[in-house]
Structure formats: structure tokens, C-alpha cells
Specification:
Number of strands: 0
Oligomer: single chain
Strand content: under 5%
Order of helices and strands: HHH
Largest sheet: none
Shape: elongated
Radius of gyration: 35 Å
Length: 80
């Protein structure tokens, strides 16, 4: 079976060889490669601020009229 990914590997071969050469030069110059602990997969999000900007506070919708208020409003409109 022919893999489509083989051409991708060969296309990136010069870049990989260049990186390998740079690593070899770094090690030859006395550099050291340290294996560090991997970072967490899902970093903890920053804490939310407890400060609320007054301009961003949402305006609440006014309550709907009750049945009694609607009847009173209708009577006032008829009286006019």
C-alpha cells in the first residue's frame, strides 16, 4: 500500500536535516539538552475579577403588567 504521507515526510526531510545539524553543533559546543516536565494539557484559566464595572451591568427588563393592572389601564383608556 502506498502512503500519501510519505511524500510529506520526504518534503520536510531537508528542514529536519538542518535542525539535526544545528542540534549536533549545539551539543559539540558544550550545550546540554534538559528534559523537563511537560506542561499541563488543560491550563487553569486565570481567576475571574470580582470587580464589576457599573457601566457593564445589564439593565433588567421591566416586569410585565399583571392582569389587574391591564384591566385598570383599559378602564382608564376607555374613560378618555
Amino acid at each position: 500500500m502506498i502512503s500519501n504521507h510519505l511524500s510529506l515526510v520526504e518534503a520536510h526531510r531537508p528542514h529536519a536535516d538542518a535542525i539535526a545539524e544545528q542540534v549536533a553543533q549545539f551539543l559539540a559546543a558544550g550545550g546540554r539538552i534538559a528534559k523537563l516536565k511537560s506542561p499541563p494539557r488543560n491550563p487553569i484559566p486565570p481567576p475571574r475579577s470580582t470587580r464589576i464595572d457599573p457601566e457593564t451591568v445589564l439593565k433588567r427588563k421591566p416586569r410585565k403588567l399583571t392582569l389587574a393592572e391591564r384591566r385598570a389601564l383599559r378602564k382608564m383608556a376607555e374613560a378618555l
